[in-house]
Amino acid sequence: MNVPTNEISVNNLPEDSASLKAMLREVLAKLESVSADQQHEKRLAEQLRQRADDLYLENLRLQQELERYKKATYGPRADRLSMNQLAQMLLEFAEALEQKPINLEDLREAEPETEVRRVKRRTGRRALANFENLPVNTYVYELSAEERPCPSCGVERKEIGSEKSWQIEYIPGHFERLEHVRKKYACPSCERAGENPQIEVAAKAETAIEKGFAGPGLLAFIVTSKFADYLPLYRLEDIFERQGFEISRATQSVWCRDVADVVEPLYERMAERVRKSHVVATDDTVLPMLSPGQTQPARMWVYVGDAANPYNIFDFTLNRSREGPKEFLKDYTQVLLADAYGGYNGVVAGNAITRAGCWSHARRKFVEAEKSAPEIAREAVALMDALFAVERQTKDVAVAERLELRQKQSVPILAELHRKLLIWKEQLLPKHPMADAVNYTLGQWEALTVFTTDGAVPIDNNVSEREMKRVVLNRKNSLFVGNPRGGRTAAILASLTSSCRRHDMDPHLYFMQLLVNLPTWPARDLDAWLPDRWKQAHIARCVALGIPVPPNP
Q: CA dist 79 to 86, 107, 340, 368, Å?
């Protein structure tokens, strides 16, 4: 007997077991079908919820990215919380000039020549024509009365001619020709006797660049304009032409390389001193380098020494691998203050280096993610600002007193912040923008708390970030370096100009005296030309001569 399952009741159940089994199988099949449908609907609902979560997180990420672009293009430099809802429409990302790719074809006219040639080959007919129109100052070099007697017979040697050479000097606002006339002397008595007339030419001051055409003032001006004032060489070329003398950007580039060769021993000495610092602050940024087809993302690194070794050293590498800082810091064993770049892990691994973190980086993560979780951002930034408030109290105190204040005031703040970070980590979805900020801070916690155990360690790495911003400014103006040697030149000259700025020195005056004296300076006394040592000596000379000390630039 077949009874429809929808009409089954206790009173009409079949009597035979076969029919009961068939009916039961039909009921179980329908139940399984209903269960499968429910499971399918459940999976669909879960997928929809996951999709909604993904869209929500993607929307938060895009909002955060948009805010970052807006701030970079229009906003203030300070990392401040706005606590306002988004009120503007999406900006076109193409308006952000920094995001536009460099079109090398458009820049072909502005490229510096990468081929290295001698300076004399750079002087074309047009430059020689301008050369003849420059005003002339003549310097005559003669043998002293003690040098004139003939070493053979003792008779005074007579003037028989002279040797001339030229330099182009730059006096701010105009060019001058410096004519160097070296008098030649010979012994007439020896010449009449058919012997060697003992000819001798009066010596002149050594030049920074052997057989170089540029005077120390001109070289110092080009280096200062390029690496202290961030003026690209093609603009200097136009400036010089307006002032009556054309010097191509390629020639200027070669001169910068030659200056870097002259001062490289001083650069190496400064780097050696920086590696003796108790705390070295470091950072890096992209410095594009020309390569076939497109620019190569090379890197410029900075290493800032402490107060006992007050120099800023730049180092150029072809990539961002850890080999760059690892090579520079191979003998370093103290504290490295840096951001969260993973390459530093390989630098500090297996040696005595202590890695310290930067609270400005951690704070910035929360400011950037503010729109996704305003309340968390407000609480986190308030606690971090309390840490910086403690640092303002310790600005002018001794290291021991600073450490005592940090232990007393900063450590409790850090404990509260760490507790809240763990709570927020449990509350937030893994891909939430604010979760990135929380995880960044927790992941760097050991490095971020080093400053509470060492009073000499700064709470942030702003000192090296400021130097990187100047590299970025130079990069925006000059766009790229031509080759690895150009990157090395930029690192050497930027190190000296940056260290001059650190000591409130005029880099033009410093380079001019450096180029006049360094070529003949004894290597054993190279420390006399370290920027801080030179400044002290320069002030002492001004005081001794009774002349006003030059104001800080």
A: 17, 34, 18, 8
200-201 and 354-356 as β-strands: parallel, antiparallel, unpaired? unpaired
Q: State whether residue 162 is helix, strand or coil.
A: strand
Residue 303: name the closest of 268, 352, 340, 258 by CA.
Answer: 268
Q: Indicate the SS3 state at residue 313.
A: strand
pLDDT digits (tens, 9 = 90+) for 487-536: 999 999 999 999 999 999 999 999 999 999 998 899 899 999 999 999 99
* Closest-CA residue to 385 (of 407, 366, 357): 366
Q: Which helix (H) or strand (E) holds 257?
A: helix 249-274
Q: Which residues are CB-contacts of 248 (< 8 A; sequence separation ≥ 6)?
A: 113, 122, 237
Q: Please provide the DSSP assignment of 207-229 as one string.
A: PSSTT-SB-HHHHHHHHHHHHTS
Strands 136-141 and 335-337: unpaired
Q: Which residue has the tokens 């040696």?
A: 351
Distance from C-alpha of 263 to C-alpha of 251, rounded to nearest angstrom: 19
Query: HSE (CB half, 13 Å, CA atoms) of 485?
Result: 13
Three-state SS at 136: strand
* Sign of the CA dihedral running 369, 375, 381, 384: negative
The chain-wide mean pLDDT, for the chain, equals: 84
DSSP per-residue letters across 367-416: HHTGGG-HHHHHHHHHHHHHHHHHHHHTTTS-HHHHHHHIIIIIHHHHHH
Domain ranges of the chain: 125-204, 216-297+304-336+481-553
Cα separation, 40 vs 272, whole angstroms: 69
What is the spatial distance between Cα 67 and Cα 79, in angstroms, rounded to a whole number?
Answer: 12
Question: Which DSSP string do the residues of 443-485 spell out, in sequence order?
Answer: HTHHHHTGGGT-TTS-S--HHHHHHHHHHHHHHHHH--BSSHH
Are the beta carbons of 354 and 336 closer than 8 angstroms? yes
Ranges 7-21, 39-53, 365-379, 409-423, most confident = 409-423
Q: Nearest CA to 508 among 229, 248, 307?
A: 229
Alpha-carbon span 229 to 238, nearest angstrom: 16
The residue among 41, 497, 96, 56 whose CA lies nearest residue 270 is 497
In angstroms, how far is the first alpha carbon of the chain from the final one? 110
Q: Two tokens at 58?
A: 């993607």
For 514, the token pair is 């450096």
